Amino acid sequence: MGTLFDEAAAGGARTVVHLDRPFDIAPRAGTRWAVTELADLVRATAARLADAGVRPGDRVAIVKDNHWDYDLLACAAVRLGAVPALLSARLDTAHLVTLLERLRPAALITTAAVLARCRDTAAGAPARIVVTVDSAAPGAAHLAALDASRPCVPVRRHDDEPLVIHHTSGTTGVPKLVVHSTRTLVHKLARFEAVRYPGIGIRPDDVLANASAYGHGRTFCWTAVVMSLAPAGIVILTGDDPRTADPLLRAHPPTVVEALPASYIRLRPLTTRLDNPFRRVRLYISTYDAVHPPALRAYLTASRRARPLWMQGWGQTETGPLTFRFHTRRSALAPDAETTARRLGRPVPGRTRLRAVDPDTLSPVPRGRPGLLLVRTLALALGYVGEQERWDAKRVGDWWSTGDMGVHHRDGSVSILDRAADTLPGMSCLRTEDVLEQRLPQALECVILGAPDGDPLPVVVTADGRLDPDAWKQATHGLPALRDPAVLTWDEVPRTGTGKVRRAALARQLTGTAPAGTGRWT
């Protein structure tokens, strides 16, 4: 990964990257980048980090505003033989400080605002070396002021040594720090994806749009894939405001779109425009979480292609993708689309095995019955930083506990019911949320929270924080008993860096108590 952009440039890649705003590490260099320019930027950034004192084997924490240059900084650190640890700036300050204490990084690459947050909360210095990317700060070097001219010979580490550290979403509490190696992330994950599969592989004439959380693990793998396949263009969205995204997407209409589920929700109004920017899309990709059927239908209908596809992947930071499912216009419009929305496909043939077990006894349960989902994959990460006991506790012999409750069906496919920490007796929160979103067109998102006593609390997210009582009454017909809903706007809901709802934090915000469920397998 340290020479990824050099190799792409040497191979003649003519990909042009368009940004919705300049890189934080190159604020005056504009929003249009060729591969050769990206290679120069990574080399210069590596030289600057070396000038700051970063050495082979050092852990380098990276915490900054959301942008693809998270991965450029990571590649620069890898080039020096260091191990980048990418942390979202959207983490609660207390959680961020906890992760930095577990990491004990030699260097922290951050912004002046994040540095101030850490210094106000942490007991000691966050790292021996501190570099700010946006502006000068007391006790820190400014990235732009460091020497970029000294060449740095790439340092190659063994394939089984740590390559990069990412954190999990953190929906149930403090995220885990996941360590991947070159073998697990590049050889087992990126190399499998970097194949021009018929229908879903990246083509030389494709324009890829990505609206992601670039500090999380998916985009580091994605970066390796797209640079090796060299599409015609890449469009990078750092936010999900439709007014900002629309002109860039219309100027460079994508043929392949990958976005966070939360970003798909926020950008959905663009699908209804006559000249919508998704008219050329042949493939949509979603990871992190399932996308609800109304959004699937909106995007598939927005494409003017004859047979656009939606590829939905289920996986985790620790494992990478585990299953895939494809949606078409026909399947998204099927009468059972809401009840099968959490059916996330079959394990990747020859690469992943799945089984469902009783969460208490760990004995296998028959196909078609709910259980705790275990997986086997050669792409399993190396461990958790600072939490080896937690890592060991999730190992069940040769199997790995996903922490998800689900059903392994007789045809081999998998349905997700809930996280083990969120599960409630007699109902699936996720399936109930799918039904509510289908019945409430004005809802941006619905969340079901378990309560220590009484019926679950539903939370309905709308654009204006309002919900018609009659519409709610009709939407809940035939569903399990629920309390009266809490109605919030999008920004009132605590979220992870990937836009997922932090259910435990939301429950405490609304009720003062943690949700029902167990955190044993999280």
UniProtKB/TrEMBL annotation:
<protein>
    <submittedName>
        <fullName>Acyl--CoA ligase</fullName>
    </submittedName>
</protein>
<comment type="similarity">
    <text>Belongs to the ATP-dependent AMP-binding enzyme family.</text>
</comment>
<feature type="domain" description="AMP-dependent synthetase/ligase">
    <location>
        <begin position="26"/>
        <end position="384"/>
    </location>
</feature>
<dbReference type="InterPro" id="IPR000873">
    <property type="entry name" value="AMP-dep_synth/lig_dom"/>
</dbReference>
<dbReference type="Pfam" id="PF00501">
    <property type="entry name" value="AMP-binding"/>
</dbReference>
<dbReference type="GO" id="GO:0016874">
    <property type="term" value="F:ligase activity"/>
</dbReference>
<dbReference type="InterPro" id="IPR020845">
    <property type="entry name" value="AMP-binding_CS"/>
</dbReference>
<dbReference type="InterPro" id="IPR042099">
    <property type="entry name" value="ANL_N_sf"/>
</dbReference>
<keyword id="KW-0436">Ligase</keyword>
